[in-house]
Amino acid sequence: MGRIILPHRSYSFEQVKAKAWQEIDPYYTSCLTFCEAWLSGEDTFFQQTSGSTGSPKTIEIKRSQMIASALATYEFFKIKKSPKILVCIHTGMIGGKMMLVRGMLWDADIYITPPSSRPFESEWLQSPFDFVAMVPFQVASGIEWDTDLKWLRQIDTLIIGGAASSPELISKIKNQNIKAYQTYGMTETVSHVAVANLQQDSQVYHTLPSVKIGINGAQCLWIEAPMALAHRLQTHDVVELLNGDSFRWLGRADFVINSGGIKIHPELLEQKIDEPIKKTYGNILYFLAGIRDEKLGQKLVLCLETSEDKKKEYILRKELEAMLEKYLVPREIYTTKTFALTDSGKINRQQTLDLCGLS
Questions:
Q1: Do 87 and 194 lie in a common domain?
Q2: Coil, helix or strand for 204?
Q3: 190 torsion bin: left (phi>0), alpha (psi -120 to 50), beta (else)
């Protein structure tokens, strides 16, 4: 029988189910309360969506969905019996909750630590793990801190979610031979339904067992899966469908910019301009957007989280003009000292455009 392991003590699953625990820290209390409800057979849970592309909403999630997701992940990655897993992402989000569910269904030793940029700084976590989930910021910070990658390299399977990994981070993961996968999923599918192996050159997502996919007339992905409550979940993600179980992600349909009849996928273009932006400004937040324009319908603009002077903006523009086709160079560059973020840490594009005076 597995255990839940905290910095100062551990509990068997039987102890958690019997409520034979008492924690002062509210974060650990919330984790154990959820685990107690799960182990007691609770059938329905409620979860707030991230709100990265619209208003956050609370949705109902069934136990059967979470079981289907955890078992599909177990099968896809061929997880060993009674694994050792680390929960270092926030358990208030679906990704963190599903780490707890996986651990309980896999009869695992579940190490729990509050989210931080560098979880392996804690000595009690400096050991090999079979399965870990992190967000890109944690992986990037971990590579900076763990310069010889002693701990990251000892993770048998690392999944990265919550946001897309930057080209720079993917390059570091490849070069350092970290066994990592980028996930694709959402709250409505109770975490991921597809993963891309970051050691491979092409960013191709492969679906978990029992997941069926297709596209609609607008080339947006639909999903049929036991972990999704809807029979067919229609997404707003534009994809290149490769075959019945794999696809390449192109961007959000609601982010597509139509500039003078040319359709631009800003999220793909953001990957191309990542290097010159970091070269000029360092590790800042940024995104591309389309705003109304009388002649073009929409014009492409770049928003940067910075208070730097115009000199760097001029340098960046010259870099972009040298590397991009003319229609892909942002017409304007806007800056603001602080971006608006969602509760899960993603950029809230609309609110940030408001901050830049572009609403």
A1: yes
A2: coil
A3: left
User: pLDDT averaged over the chain?
Assistant: 90
Number of domains present in the structure of the chain: 2
Alpha-carbon gap, residue 324 to 321, rounded angstroms:
6
Final residue of a domain: which of 186, 209, 232?
209
Whether 203 and 265 share a structural domain:
no
Tell me which residues of the chain have a pLDDT lower than 50.
52-54
**Residues 6 or more apart in contact with residue 184 via CB below 8 angstroms:** 192, 193, 194, 195, 196, 205, 249
DSSP 208: P
pLDDT per position as a tens digit, 258-279: 888 888 989 889 989 999 999 9
| Domain end residue (candidates: 209, 243, 274) | 209
CA distance 51 to 31: 22
Cβ-Cβ contacts under 8 Å for 170 (sequence gap 6 or more):
182, 198, 203
